[in-house]
Amino acid sequence: MITEQETSQVRCTRNMSKLKSESGLSVTEELDVLDRGLPERLTSSRQSVARQDLKKKLIRDSFNYFLSKAIPGIMALCSVLAFVRLVGKAEYGRYSVLFAIVTACTAGLSGWLPQGIIRYFSLSHTESEATRFKSATLLGLLLSVVTGTLVLGAALWFERQPFWSGILGVLLLAAGMLYGVFVIELQAMLKSHKVASFEAIRSISCFVVPICIIFLLRKRSAGALLIGVLVGYILPLGIAWWMEQDRAALLRTTLNNHSWNDDLNVLKTLWTYGWPVGIWSMCLTMQSAIDRYFIQHYSGDANAGSYAAMYDIIVRSFSLLCFPLVMSSNSLVMERWNKGDRSSAVSLIQSSLKYQMVISVVFLLGLVIFAQQVDYVILGGRRKSTSSLVLPLAIGGFLWQIAYLVHKPLELMCLTKRMLTAMIVTLIVSAGGNYIFIPLYGYTAAAYVAIAAPLAYLVAAVVLTPMTEFRREISVRAVPLVVGEISSMEGPVT
Prior knowledge:
The protein is mainly α. It has helices spanning 4-22, 27-37, 44-110, 112-120, 127-158, 163-188, 192-217, 222-243, 247-256, 260-299, 301-338, 342-369, 371-379, 390-406, 408-412, 416-441, 443-464, 467-476, 483-488. The longest helix has 67 residues, at 44-110.
C-alpha cells in the first residue's frame, strides 16, 4: 500500500522523466544529462563547505533580488503617496480595486505557467531540450492570454464596468502575463542581475508615466493611472527585445522545432504541477481585492482608497525587505532539489527563514514605534487618523512572508493541491471575516482580518505537511532517480 504522499511523489518523478522523453533526447544526450545531473559524493567536510558556498550564493542572489525589489518597492511607495495626492482617495480607491481584480485574474489564469517553469526549467540541460521547453512555454503563454482576455472581459462586462475599464483591464492583463513569464525565465536561469535591471525599468516607468499622463492630459482619474501602469509593463519587454539581437533568431529556431504533440505533453506536465499553484496565487491576490471591494461597498470610495494606500505601503514594505530572500531561495532550493542535493535544499530553507525572522522583527518594531508618523506620511493627516491600521497590517505582512517559506516542503513534494487547500481555507476566512465585520466596524476590521488570514494559512499548511514523508524524501533520495529506477516504480499505485 502506497500512501497519498508517495503517490504524489511517484507522479512528480514521472513528470520529470516525461520532460526528458518528450524533448526527444538521443541516447548520447540522455546519458550526458544523467551524468551531469548526478551530484558528486561529498565527504562531511566538503559537504559543509558546499553548503557554505550555497549560503553565500543565497545572500548574493538575495542582494541582487533586493535591488530588483528595492527600486520597485521605493517606486511603489512613492506611487501610492503621489497617486493619492494627484487623483484623490476616491479615484485611487477605484484604481486599486480594478488593479487588484486584474492581478487576481492574471494569477489565476496564467500563474500555473511561471510555477511550472521555475519547477522544471533546471531539468532542460541540453540546447535541444531548452528549445523545445521554450516552444511549449510560448504556446502556454498564448493560451493563457487568450483565455484571460475572454474571462476578464466577460467578468468586467457582467459587472457593468465602464468600457474603458474593460479595455484597459484586458490590455493590462495581457501585458502582465507576458512580463511575468519573461521575468520568471530570467529567475529560473539564476540571472538575478537581469531581473533587478528589468524590474527597475518597469517600476520607474509605472511611476513616471502615469504622472506624465495626468499632467499632459490634465485628467486626474483612475483611467490615467491604469494607462500609465500599462505602458510601464510594456516598456521593459520592448527594451529586452531590442537589446537581444539574436532573439528573432531564437524565436525562429523555437518555431522551427515546434511540435504540437511535444508541446502539449510538456504543457500537460507543467499544468499538472502548476494549476493548483496558479489558483493558489489567484486566491492570495483576491484577498486584497475582497477587502477593498467590501470597504468600497459599505464605506465608499474614499475609505477604500485610504485603506488601500495604507495596505500598499505597509505590506509592500515587508515585501521589499523579505521577498528577495524568498525569490533567491526559491530558485536555489528548486535547483538543488532537482539535482538531488536535498539536504542542502532544506538547509537553504532554514537559513532563509532565520534571516527573514530577524529582518521582519526589526522592521515590525520600527512601525509600531512610528505608527503616527507613518499614517501622516501616507495620507497627509487631512482626515481622521488611520494609525490604528499600521500594527495589524504590519503583523499580517510579516506572517505572509513567513508563510512563503513554511509551505516550501509541500512545493518540493509536489503536493500543490494541499497548498491550494490551505489557501482556500484562508480565502474563506478572509471573505467571511470582511463580509461580517466591515459593516460593523469599518475598514479597521479589514486590517485585523489581514492577520487572521495568514494565521489560518500557516496552521493549515503545517497540518497538511506530511513531515514524516518529507524527512524520508530527504534521506532516501540522496541523488536523482535514473531511468531504471523510474521504470521500476511504474507498477500499480494503490
